[in-house]
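Need tokens for this chain, all 235 residues.
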Amino acid sequence: MSGTAFPEEAGERTGTDRPIRAASAAALPHPSGVGPDAVPVPYIAAWSEERARRPLVVRRADAGGERIGYPGEPAYDRDGHGALWVRQSFAPGRGRPQFQNVHALRQRRAARRMLCQVCGRPTPRGGPWLFVLRDVGRPVEEGERTTAPPVCVPCARVSVRHCPRLREGHVAAMVGRAEVWGVAGVVHRPATLEPADGALHVVAYDSPAIRWTVAHRLVLTLHDCAPVRLDALPA
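Here are the structure tokens for all 235 residues:
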């Protein structure tokens, strides 16, 4: 497995209002296909036929006030919290794997349904769930925010051997509770409807900025965190 297949956002910890890169997948084995040089493709990675589209954005109004939207917007453009999501076609396995990019819907599905971000299979029903994040000089803390979905033990062990970011240093925790907190997305200026910049910013669902954000990732907060060593976990 080539180390170059691993994107820079693997194990992303969002911090406080810190922009993150607009790319990410822990590029690890997934049964949906095999990339160049026999590199397995992860569940949340995008394929070349799954292009994100940039439709015209318009100003809309509802009972809560003004917000950003798409013309002729169907219900599936928004999630259950009312956040507007990037449009991206769904064609896993078609074309070439784009290891540097995350598929927005599959990341959101994995984070919301507690699927392994690598193999796409369900993790333990009701938890606890294993999260493996970059080492930033502290363990996984109560209330930690992350765009990384959980991972199963076998996939976690592969990831820390082959992912350059995690190989440099990682921390792992069993998490008793993972809650949907908000999104990472492109924030637009209300006056002009132009993007504020090209980065993804973390925005809480209860923030006024959510009304001007096109979401690309779901953000979770982690609770009841117990640090663990991967080599001490049963397979």
